[in-house]
Design a protein that fits this description.
- The complex is a heterodimer of chains A (113) and B (113).
- Chain A has 113 residues and is mainly β.
- In chain A, 0% of the residues lie in helices and 49% in strands.
- In chain A, the strands form 2 sheets. In chain A, strands 1-3-8-7-6 form a 5-stranded antiparallel beta sheet, with no helix packed on it.
- The chains are: A mainly beta (113), B mainly beta (113).
């Protein structure tokens, strides 16, 4: 019920390209869908998050697309930059479950200059 | 705003000793904090939920007698790794939520020798 599947495991994109990372979940009680960015040796930092009442949210170069019926959400990074090279995690959670986040397996993104 | 401070950032200890890691919410009060563990190139795994003024809730498979959690105030939670062994070497990260956003500390790299 709490399984979260993230894909791809790794991704290489040329500078200026679009990076797309997907997250599939099973628990229909999830009502918070964030993406986190983590650099080596650092804690995760919230990148962008969405609630289930909207299908898309854009903040700068980062967009979340949410498909409630398919139980999937994705992160799109437009105009990818070398500084975006990091590990990205989806981590859906439920406000009814003490706010615990369930992390996906992570995607290592490398943006080549 | 919404800063979570974690200390120390790195610690090396001898096998059999105990290590305490502090997690502080600097600009908000947190009745609940979360402790995660992350092994190299892996995802974050929730260890326990720290509750101010009451006992922590541990995830399945996490030894509560080995990982002692104390949440004595609304801004401080501590994780003590007791009788540490080399297999406890990992990256420990805490998190708290000032409302609807989950903020993570910068993590503590524990190495047991």
């Amino acid at each position: 019920q709490q399984q979260v599947k993230q894909s791809p495991q790794s991704l290489i994109v040329q500078k200026g390209g679009i990076s797309i990372i997907n997250c599939a979940y099973e628990n229909t009680a999830f009502d918070y869908f964030p993406w986190y960015q983590q650099f080596p040796g650092k804690g995760p930092a919230l990148l962008i998050a969405i609630r289930p009442d909207v299908s898309e949210k854009k903040e700068g170069r980062f967009t979340i697309s949410f498909n409630k019926s398919a139980k999937q959400f994705s992160l799109h990074i437009m105009d990818s930059q070398p500084g975006d090279s990091a590990t990205y995690f989806c981590a859906p959670g439920s406000s009814s479950n003490t706010g615990k986040l369930i992390f996906g397996q992570g995607t290592t993104l490398q943006v080549k200059p | 705003g919404a800063v979570v401070s974690q200390h120390p950032s790195r610690v090396i200890c001898k096998s059999g000793t105990s290590v305490k890691i502090e997690c502080r919410s600097l600009d908000f009060q947190a009745t609940t904090m979360f402790w995660y563990r992350q092994f190299p190139k892996q995802s974050l795994m929730l260890m326990a939920t720290s509750n101010e003024g009451s006992k922590a809730t541990y995830e399945q498979g996490v030894e509560k007698d080995k990982f002692l959690i104390n949440h004595a105030s609304l801004t401080l939670s501590t994780l003590t790794v007791t009788s540490a062994h080399p297999e406890d070497s990992s990256f420990y990260i805490c998190s708290a939520s000032p409302g609807q956003k989950y903020t993570f500390g910068s993590g503590t790299r524990l190495t047991v020798v």
